[in-house]
Amino acid sequence: MSETPPESPDFDAMARDIAEVPAVEVIVTVAVNLMSAAAVKLGLTEEGEKHKDLDEARKLVHALAGLLDATAAEISSFHAAPLRDGLKSLQLAFREASLVPDESGQGPGEKYTGPVYG
Predict the structure, then answer these.
(1) pLDDT tens track of the chain, all 118 residues?
(2) Which of 13, 82, 110, 112 could lock onto 65 through a cystine, CB 3.0 to 4.6 A?
(3) pTM of the full predicted structure?
């Protein structure tokens, strides 16, 4: 009994599909995915501590801050403002979850945002 090989992805169709998506939507989608992953790694989901990994969370929050810093002027304040609010919430959650808090301005993403205070 032979298995049929899985179908290979249609890269041409994928390229056509992505070509129709505005850059702002791609950037916002990536930012939301980074925010969601960071929330999981910070233990902010229903499963809480099960997936908590502050080292991984730090990387995700830092990447989100860098993305927002690099694209803020491109995506307008309509899109950027809620993403910045979400970033700040994640940065504060990280600070709260850390056993040994980073010095002011040294937390994840603070290179781009400056020190974050509650």
Answers:
(1) 556 556 777 888 878 788 899 999 999 999 999 999 999 999 999 988 899 999 999 999 999 999 999 999 999 999 999 999 999 999 999 999 999 989 999 999 999 999 998 7
(2) 112
(3) 0.85
